[in-house]
Amino acid sequence: MANLPKGITKRADGRFCIRVMRDGQKVTKYAKTKKEAESVLREVVYELEHGTYLKDTRQTCDMWFGTWIETYKKPTTKASTVKIYECWYNVHVKPAIGNMRLQTVKASHIQKILNGMQDEYAEQVIKHIKTIVSEMMKQAVKEGLILHNPADGVTVPKGKQKGGHIAMTVSEQKIFTEYIQDENQILNSFLQLQLCTGLRFGECAALQWQDIDLKNKVLHVRHTVHVVDGADVLTTPKTKSSMRDVPIIPKAMEVLKREKARAAGQKIIALDRFVFDGGNGRAVSLQTLNRYIKHICKQIGENKGMDFPTLTSHDLRHTFATRAIENGMPPQTLKAILGHSSLAMTMDLYSHVLGDQKQADMELIASAF
Hints:
Layout: E1 8-10, E2 16-22, E3 25-31, H1 34-50, H2 61-73, H3 79-97, H4 107-115, H5 123-142, H6 170-178, H7 186-197, H8 201-205, E4 212-213, E5 218-221, E6 224-228, E7 231-235, E8 244-247, H9 250-265, E9 277-279, E10 282-283, H10 286-304, H11 313-326, H12 331-338, H13 343-349, H14 351-364
Antiparallel strand pairs: 1-2, 2-3, 4-5, 5-8, 6-7, 9-10
Helix pairs in contact: 2-3, 7-9, 7-11, 12-13
């Protein structure tokens, strides 16, 4: 066909073939009309000259996520973390953009995913989802699969606001403790240890017998536990300060010795077994524990004829910290026991208790003036 620009030929089937070679890179495309072919030729030449050409690929987000996990994450990341990435991707990302071609994903698609989570999930969880998408897209840019990372233009919504945690008063704690004395109920032992140590739920649930040193009266916080695809997955805490040793006070010693005797009687005293066996070798479930606590609080309210607060597992941690400050534990020591990353965090959470203590301390020196 006459007057066709260099790089365009007409095929026997009537279509036009565009072939361009630049710096060893060969590009072949097709068009239905001469006008369309000329337009495609100009675009390809421009993109090759300016380094913005992307090879046409049918790769979907699901396909790329699989490649990214296998090639870039598994060799460098803990297996437990990889499982969490896969679970979060499958739950939150896959349904929305999994079948989309990688090159067609825009910031608005990712923003819609995050916005859809804000009424049910905490901001920290939403940040994790953004991180997963951002990292996989960042690697796609390096591979030349996309030009820009669409997650760069995304903002993380505030997410579900957490309710304020409760610290029991001394009298409430005394009543609550009376209701968790049944030694045949392993959940009672779990709650007693939380009250004596201030451990987070995941840290307490993850305790294995190899973490317990009864001789030296110390327990080692080395893991936290998550449920991924119906299985318990142990991970190391996110911050260095969370990896800590917590002294075992007499009440905690009593609880641990009782559970060790229970485990020995059931012949499950292996070092890698959970201290608190939730059944079939599984860790105690947070949902199960919180339902049990709610039941206890309801019982107390009905039996005592009082408005007893509805607690959660985390409230026991706050109760421990409050008692510690009220009884003179220095904030720096409490920071270490709770595994806070900074003293400022401890001071911010328990400043109201410190305020009461300051008043008492000032009264001690009142007679000097």
